[in-house]
Write a structure and sequence with these properties.
Layout: E1 2-7, H1 9-18, E2 20-21, E3 24-28, E4 34-40, E5 42-45, H2 48-52, E6 57-62, E7 80-83, E8 87-88, E9 92-94
Antiparallel strand pairs: 1-6, 2-8, 3-4, 5-7, 6-9
Amino acid sequence: MIFYHGTTKENWNKIQEEGVLFGRRYITDAEGNHLKEVDRCTYLAVDIEEARCYGDVLLLVEYDPMENKNKNNYVEGCWQVRVYEPIPIDNIKIIR
């Protein structure tokens, strides 16, 4: 399936360095400072316009949520998917 992911130029560089799309979630304080990493996951949007809200870099991501159902929270018709496994960079194309 095709999904979309919006990110920053800084995070796109990190994705390329690591060779996978695999985000990080943090507990933050009131000022937005990262206090503790909670887990690693990536948010994928179903709609390209939703992904545009999350950064200057827009990625098209091929991901099959049915392949590893226990590694994501996919529900048909939902506006986003949270993926708990690394997505190979070969499955990603930069749109802008």
